[in-house]
Amino acid sequence: MKKEWLNRKETFEVKDVRKLKGNFLLSILKKAQDLEVENGLCIVQSFEPIPLYSALEELGYEHHTDKISETEYKVYFYRRTIKTPKYPDGMDIPLKPTAIVNFNRIEPKLADVVVNFWNLIWGQESPAIDMKTRLLLSLANGVGGGRMRQATREMVKAYSIGVTVAEFDELFSMFAWNQGVGYFASEIGPSSLFAAYQFVKTQEDRGIERSEIVKKLIEKFGETNPDVSTFYKATKDETDGEK
Q1: ∠ Cα 220 45 50 (to 5°)
Q2: Strand residue runs (E) in the chain
Q3: For residue 242, what pLDDT is reported?
Q4: pTM of the full predicted structure?
Q5: Domain count, the chain
């Protein structure tokens, strides 16, 4: 059944993000949060921006996607109602897979493959393994592969959906066992992952509410933290001359 609001989709404000660099997701979410009910926004991207669907649904939007070509998608978001986002950045879960945009800088078709692969793994409606366990497994895989950036992002997500400090305590004890004391001391201890873990423990010891801890955790160990962000920050010399 055709959505009645599609009759006026061409009146929606258009935001073409195909050539933008860096993390523009937060600006999209900010714009989406500011729109009134019965208004809409059109996002133009080189690949189907699947991670955006659930993020804007959390804000009260429904969507319709038009595939213009292999490297052009137009997604129309219509605000059906006002919803208060669960997390301070407006997302349905912290730290969405923004690194997909990096693949778009290489080849849009590659980004399309990657985002659909991500959706296959993380977008299942009824997965056999619950999300907490999936995130802890991904966290452990990150540590095993020496990818502390990935592991930190998974830890933030895991804590945000209810993983306890006691569960993290056991997991980090397993890291010392499986990776070895030397590896733990030289690689895990100085990492952003261990810093985030200790931050959570300290905050809980002080009696801070989980919701407040999550907010601070995202601020300290989110996209603005260079040890966690998946975007390369260009130097002034590299950006000189760009418009």
Answers
A1: 65
A2: 13-16, 40-45, 61-69, 72-79
A3: 45
A4: 0.85
A5: 2
